[in-house]
Design a protein that fits this description.
Order of helices and strands: HHHHH
Distance between the termini: 11 Å
Structural class: mainly alpha
Number of helices: 5
Helix content: over 70%
Strand content: under 5%
């Protein structure tokens, strides 16, 4: 992709980091966000892009705003761009 981190992969990295920071398992995050643990895993692996509804649910479960979550994703993409 020419030095640009795939957005789904960036989202997954950020999601995994934030989940770890708040001390939740994938199962717990799934419960709090009303999502299946397997879907949380798929998102963390960057295998699928989340819908806006999912982003909002995850942000609430992680005690942050959707804007803050997406800002971290954008930062991660920018980091990857600078590394290339």
């Amino acid at each position: 992709m020419g030095g640009i981190l795939d957005p789904a992969v960036a989202f997954g990295k950020v999601l995994r980091l934030l989940r770890s920071e708040v001390g939740l398992t994938q199962e717990q995050l799934g419960f709090e966000a009303d999502l299946r643990r397997t879907y949380v895993s798929i998102l963390e692996l960057g295998q699928q892009q989340p819908s806006l509804t999912t982003i909002l649910k995850l942000a609430k479960a992680l005690n942050c705003t959707a804007a803050a979550l997406m800002e971290k994703v954008e930062t991660e993409i920018g980091r990857a761009k600078r590394r290339k």
